[in-house]
Specification:
Shape: extended
Number of helices: 3
Largest sheet: none
Order of helices and strands: HHH
Structural class: mainly alpha
Number of strands: 0
Number of domains: 1
Helix content: 55-70%
């Protein structure tokens, strides 16, 4: 029962994440601190030349940014749980 509550909380946070990561960030003009520092230092933006991921800025090409943000969150959650599962398996195997 306790674990089910955690999954519900994760789901709710995942669904509302675009509100904070996209909608409100655009409203207040938020920019990543590293982007601001790079701009002040005069560093060139190489994003277009060296794009190694299809999820640039947590979006998925061809669908609305808000949905892409949720998909990127799902992938991140999956990766974290996969790493945790692997570590738990390896720790149990050593006993």
């Amino acid at each position: 029962m306790k674990i089910k509550r955690y999954w519900i909380l994760i789901g709710i946070l995942l669904i509302i994440s675009p509100i904070f990561g996209i909608i409100l960030a655009d409203m207040v003009g938020y920019h990543e601190p590293l982007d601001i520092a790079a701009e002040k230092l005069g560093l060139q933006d190489l994003t277009e030349q060296m794009n190694w991921t299809p999820f640039l800025d947590y979006t998925v090409p061809g669908i609305p940014d808000e949905i892409g943000y949720i998909i990127a969150g799902l992938i991140g959650i999956f990766v974290i749980f996969l790493i945790g599962y692997i570590l738990q398996y390896l720790a149990g195997k050593k006993k």
